[in-house]
Every structure is written in structure tokens, then in C-alpha cells.
Design goal:
Number of helices of chain B: 2
Helix content of chain B: 25-40%
Radius of gyration of chain A: 18 Å
Number of domains of chain A: 1
CATH architecture of the domain at 3-68 and 101-113 in chain B: 2-Layer Sandwich
Number of strands of chain B: 6
CATH class of the domain at 3-68 and 101-113 in chain B: Alpha Beta
Strand order of the largest sheet of chain B: 2-1-6
Number of helices of chain A: 8
Strand content of chain A: 15-25%
CATH architecture of chain A: 3-Layer(aba) Sandwich
Mean pLDDT of chain B: 93
Strand content of chain B: 25-35%
Largest interface: A-B, 34 and 33 residues
Oligomer: heterodimer
CATH class of chain A: Alpha Beta
CATH topology of the domain at 3-68 and 101-113 in chain B: hypothetical protein PF0899 fold
Low-confidence stretches of chain A: none
Largest sheet of chain A: 7 strands, parallel
Distance between the termini of chain B: 36 Å
Order of helices and strands of chain B: HEHEEEEE
Largest sheet of chain B: 3 strands, mixed
Shape of chain A: globular
Structural class of chain B: alpha+beta
Radius of gyration of chain B: 18 Å
């Protein structure tokens, strides 16, 4: 019997595809963000408000993942930007191959921002790189403040945590401070934004965050070309 | 929840190696799973046993090494195991310590009969 060292990523195939996607985005100066949360934390509503606030000429597209139904794509299509539903048929996360397949009809050079809404799940999406520039995790005030401690992987891998439904804070036994403290225990360098998609509070800062990241992606592509 | 998919990716890797070296018999595959990988080791073992059962890979052993989350302090360079999500450096008290391991989801080795 002998032992052969392998040193390979388990999800090597996904990783290779994700790196190819990342390189394509980088060449176009396109920003791709991957939105992840539990079901019902407000990903789709935040996206509706985001698209509503976009300039009508904004070059933005959305891929939205669910186990079943085209409901989210219908909700998001009314803003006039390209939207595609990824129905996973039971798979609990999106993977890079699904992204590649659903991007096939779009020209990346026509886009500045690609938003991927992952399947509602805090566990499995954390393992699959989709080639995104940043994972963004949403936590709503109707969940527990200890979610970051219960699901550390996704909070660790996300650059930004968006605390949603802050309009409900007076009515729910949720401490925003404790939630933020827990998030920073798992990921000390994580950025945190608080907002309410319903009242609009905090949405300006969210839009600014996206814009700043978009400019960063653009300048990186410019630097690579020159 | 996604451990069956992970188990299947591990088996894919084993099969790819087996195709490259058709004259050896792979008996064991060793993987490293970090505590931040979001993978439940028991579910992974269960899923792996289920997919190899009654196939040519029946009996292939999956050996899992769990990798703890380690942090490094940027100020004093001390490395420590992070427990109870406390990022603070036990030597100098710095909070903004950096994760240096614990995200692994890697195939480390295979054991073969020649």
C-alpha cells in the first residue's frame, strides 16, 4: 500500500468555472455580487428597490435562483432590466455552471453590474464560488441575532452584511447591536449596512456601496488594459 | 444539505485519478474539511457510503481530517486556535486578527494498492 498526495480542491470543477467567470467579468469591468440569506430575509424586495432606484440607462442584470417557480423573475422583470430565473429543481444552492449557462444569451460587454440572488439558504451557497467579486449576506431583524454564530461560514466569506427590516426593530425582540457584534466576532473585517426596503431608510448607503464597488471594478479593468 | 454533492465531487476526483492510473487500486481517499467550510462530516460520510455502495467503489474509505480555524495576529504574529468565535489575540489583545486556516475543502491524498 502506498499513499499519493493529491492537494486538490474538492469542488475543483466549480472552482475552475468560477475563475473563468471572474476573469470574464474582470475583462469587462463588470461587478458581480452574490446575495445570500435565509428564505424570507428580503433579498427579492431589496432587489426590487435597488432596480427601482437605478438610472433607467443603467447596465444591470439579475440572475435569481430558486428551487421552484419563476415568481422572483416576474417580480424583478417589471423594472425593464434583463432578469433571468434559475430554477434549480431542488438543488439548495447555485453553482458556477448554472451561472455560465444562464449568462449565455447576454453580452457581458453590455453590463456594468450583475446581481445574483442565490437560493434562500445560509449553508450550502457558502461552498460554491460563482466568480463573484463579493458575497453579500442579508440578516433580517425577524431572525435571531445569533445567526452569524450558527452559520459562521457564510458570514465569514461575505464582505458585507446587510441588516434588513430595520423598520421592525421597535416591534421585535432583536438587538441590532448584538447581531453586529456576533457578525464581527465571526468576521472582524466585515462591512455592515442597515436598511429597510419598506421605508427606504438606509437604501441610499446601499446604492452608494454598489456604486463604489462598481467604480472599483471598472478602474481595475481599465488598469489591466493600459 | 449539500454534502451528497460534495461526496459526489470527491468520488469524481477519485475516478479521474483511477482513469489516469488504471493499474492501481485506490482504497482510501483523504480529505481536509475546515470548520468554516460549512460541511457536516457525518452527513458527508453517510452520503459517501451511500453513493459507493453496490458499485465498483464499494469499500472505498473516506478519511476526513477536520481542520480547526486558526488566526494570526498582525501585531505580534502570534498564531492561535479560534474558539467560541473570539478573534482577540490572547497575547497582545488585538481584535483584528486574520484567519489563516479553517476554510479547507480539499482532497489531500489517496491510498493505493499496487
Amino acid at each position: 500500500m502506498s499513499r499519493v498526495e493529491v492537494e486538490k480542491k474538492v469542488l475543483n470543477e466549480n472552482q475552475i468555472l468560477a475563475e473563468q467567470l471572474r476573469e470574464r467579468y474582470r475583462q469587462q469591468g463588470l461587478l458581480c455580487v452574490n446575495l445570500i440569506s435565509s428564505p424570507g430575509s428580503g433579498k427579492t424586495l431589496l432587489l426590487e428597490k435597488t432596480l427601482d432606484r437605478m438610472d433607467k440607462n443603467a447596465r444591470v442584470a439579475v440572475l435569481t435562483g430558486d428551487l421552484q417557480t419563476e415568481n422572483d423573475a416576474k417580480r424583478l422583470a417589471k423594472f425593464g432590466f434583463p432578469v433571468k430565473q434559475i430554477v434549480t429543481g431542488g438543488t439548495c444552492h447555485l453553482d458556477a455552471r448554472m451561472i455560465e449557462k444562464h449568462l449565455a444569451d447576454w453580452k457581458l460587454e453590455d453590463l456594468d453590474l450583475l446581481i445574483v440572488e442565490n437560493v434562500g439558504n445560509l449553508v450550502c451557497p457558502s461552498s460554491y464560488d460563482l466568480g463573484e467579486d463579493a458575497k453579500i449576506v442579508l440578516l433580517s431583524t425577524t431572525e435571531g441575532e445569533d445567526k452569524p454564530l450558527k452559520y459562521p461560514s457564510i458570514f465569514f466569506k461575505s464582505e458585507l452584511m446587510v441588516l434588513t427590516k430595520i423598520d421592525l426593530l421597535p416591534y421585535v425582540p432583536f438587538s441590532a447591536e448584538l447581531a453586529k457584534e456576533n457578525a464581527r466576532r465571526v468576521h472582524p473585517q466585515m462591512e455592515i449596512l442597515e436598511l429597510s426596503s419598506t421605508t427606504g431608510e438606509g437604501l441610499d448607503r446601499w446604492m452608494e456601496w454598489l456604486k463604489a464597488r462598481q467604480q472599483k471594478a471598472k478602474s481595475k479593468a481599465g488598469a489591466a488594459r493600459s | 444539505m449539500h454534502e451528497l454533492g460534495i461526496a459526489s465531487s470527491i468520488l469524481d476526483c477519485v475516478q479521474a485519478e483511477a482513469r489516469r492510473h488504471p493499474d492501481v487500486h485506490i482504497t482510501k481517499v483523504g480529505v481536509k474539511i475546515g470548520e468554516l467550510a460549512g460541511v457536516d462530516v457525518d452527513s458527508l460520510q453517510f452520503g459517501f457510503e451511500a453513493i459507493v455502495k453496490d458499485t465498483e467503489w464499494d469499500g472505498l474509505v473516506l478519511a476526513v481530517e477536520s481542520i480547526p480555524r486558526m488566526q494570526r495576529c498582525p501585531k505580534c504574529q502570534h498564531e492561535f486556535r479560534m474558539t467560541d468565535f473570539d478573534p482577540q489575540c490572547p497575547i497582545c489583545g488585538e481584535f483584528a486578527t486574520q484567519c489563516i486556516s479553517g476554510e479547507e475543502l480539499d482532497i489531500a491524498y489517496m491510498e493505493v494498492d499496487e
